[in-house]
Fold this protein.
Amino acid sequence: MSTPSTKEAPFKLVHVFDAPRELVFNAFSTAEALAQWWGPAETTNSVLSLDFRPGGVFHFKMEHNGIINYGRFLFGTIRPYDVLEFSNAFADEKGNVIPAPFDIPLPKEILYRLYFTEHAGKTTLTITGEPINATSEEKDGMLQISEDMQRGFTATWEKLERYLAS
Amino acid sequence: MKIRRDVFQAIADPTRRHILETVARQPVNLTTLADKYDMTRQAVSLHVKILSECGLLQITRQGREQWCEAKLKELDEVSRWVDHCRKFWKTKFHSLEHYLDKVQTTKKHK
């Protein structure tokens, strides 16, 4: 039996910011801050609503050449100033999740986990992302084995990526 | 109505990512695969079934054994998404950096 101890997400990115972590963390927590940096670079983005608490929603609008799309965060764990979890998806004008409005294959919804650590006034932000895509049929099937799943597994995804690249 | 499965559903689960990694190294029979996990054979079979329905894994029957083989080409879609994600967040972290600089400069001048 293998006893894997971690579960790695397919997407991971680490970045060091020259700012204390409280500041970096709070850049995700207010509409004023999000309005200034969040959203695709090629679109004009505006905040429609923000409810920064577990289970709360951040609803935003993206405009480009007269085309309007909406997006949505659903916040999960919020642990200032260490951990922040939210899922991100395209949405309609009411904030309901919709599939990506482009003809490129993307997950409908992505779960992001952000970890903040501070050293000498600089903040290391680690972000991981994985698709959320379970159907109810699958959820039923998985319910019985959820305990097993809780233990986590060493999905050494990066190794697979290296393997595929070689 | 049958919902079309996609590769993102396939990799939405850590166990399935692990199974994929295992079979990507070399084809493996279902019994050997099931023995690797701390879960019932049924549960492993369900994961394998989902991977197969998503086109990432092929099951071939040889006598009484079922062999699982990774369909690596289908994984390109996943790599493309990961690349897309990385580019997007790199750009975003750049904007966040600008924002943080601005906020900190404003503070200092107060």
